[in-house]
Amino acid sequence: MAEDPSSCSSCSELPDLEEMDLGTNETEQLLIDYRALSLGDPLKSYDDDAFEEAMQLRARALNAYPEKLNTAILLLTDAINLCPCSALMLMSRAQVLFDIGELAAAIRDLKAATERSPTHVGSFRLLGKAYTYLCHYGEALAAYQKAQSLDYSEDVAELIKGLNPKVEAEKREEAEAKRLFEEQQNKASAKAQEKKEQSFADRVYAEVETAKSKGGPLPEAFRVLDNLKSEAQSLSASTAQKLLSNNTTAQAMEDPEFTRKLDEVAKDPAAAAVHMRDPKFAKAFMEIINCFK
């Protein structure tokens, strides 16, 4: 029978404080995933007695730190579980995590603290500091500004002053990265369109060559060429509107090179075998054919 995962020691949660002899080497040798520490139940309410107990756990944790890091972390985690909406408990653990360089874990605690207690100035200030260390200047500035709106500090004002040019530089870098990305996307799109048009031109060219070699009729699109001259002489308003409202045909008709090639095809449809290899000509030519249909 397969082992129940919940009974596997490697899968189990950290033991309760009551089950451990805190401060021993065994406790300090535990491998703790700081990014998965309990944040407590945000819907849980607590009374004064629970808060007093949490404060005692916090005091023990601060006494244990830094010599006994794991002990401090576990004590603070238990304090958080007792009072999940206490920004003080969350910020206290975040401070320890920040001190040991676990910035992502510290930010996780601080975000929970600011969400559950949006007027806790200390949490916003430490959050700004953590983001600054990660070079996330925009987030750092937002956290510091929120702290200032709650309780103004000259020291934080100086930090904000130093952050402003970094935030502007960050915005410029983001804008440049976006521009380069869009430029690459546009180039890729243009290349795909060019490939599509070339494929179309090659296909029509092949049809013309096949028809010529067999002495058969030209593709349907070219069989209407004989009618173009007569229809152009008495161009209807609707056809003229189609030609003028189509950007491709309107631009093509102003291109002397295109009109020269079009005249050659009108005189000798077989000339299309040469000119249809030009994707630009092929596209405009087929648009004109469609306008007369």
From TrEMBL:
This is Heat shock 70kD protein binding protein. It holds the Pfam family STI1-HOP_DP. Transmembrane segments: none annotated. The keyword Cell inner membrane does not apply. It comes from the Eukaryota. PROSITE patterns: TPR. SMART domains: TPR (SM00028). It comes from Giardia intestinalis (strain ATCC 50803 / WB clone C6) (Giardia lamblia). GO terms for molecular function: Hsp70 protein binding. Keywords: Stress response.
